Amino acid sequence: MSEDDNNMEEYPTEIHDYLTAFEKSLGSVDEMLKTMMSVSRSELLQKLDPLEQAKLDLVSVYALNSMFWVYLATQGINPKEHPVKQELERIRTYMNKVKEIADKKKASKLDKGAASRFVKNALWEPNAENGHTSKSPAKGKKQQ
């Protein structure tokens, strides 16, 4: 009997696919952590602007607390009744604040000069020679 056959007997076969997916996910997390740990934190932060630094810090602390949540669950402790739940909520609040800042940064800005020129050129102006406009009159006004 192989080692896999012994392991199959230790847990219900219905959860085999879930456990396989969980093991694959753990491998992915391990690879990402190795990649992140290969570069020193100060070296990594020097390459990022302050907003990106905040995002990196928040993602790191959220991932760490999420792994602790999973650890508590594997130990039979209800993580919903543990202070880690409040910590995750606090981190999510800061993640939302950073997202708002990033969204404001991406939002289009009003070019006041261009808007002013657009409005000025769109308005009706009397022509000095005949009292009429060189532009089209505003709606509802008749040219004479």
From TrEMBL:
GO terms for cellular component: cytoplasm; exosome (RNase complex); nucleolus. It comes from Vidua chalybeata. Plays a role in the recruitment of the exosome to pre-rRNA to mediate the 3'-5' end processing of the 5.8S rRNA. It is found in: Cytoplasm; Nucleus, Nucleolus. Residues 121-144 are annotated as: Disordered. Belongs to the C1D family. Keywords: Cytoplasm, DNA-binding, Nucleus, RNA-binding, rRNA processing. One of its GO terms (biological process) is regulation of gene expression. Monomer and homodimer. InterPro entries: Exosome-assoc_fac/DNA_repair (IPR011082), Sas10/Utp3/C1D (IPR007146). GO terms for molecular function: DNA binding; RNA binding. This is Nuclear nucleic acid-binding protein C1D.
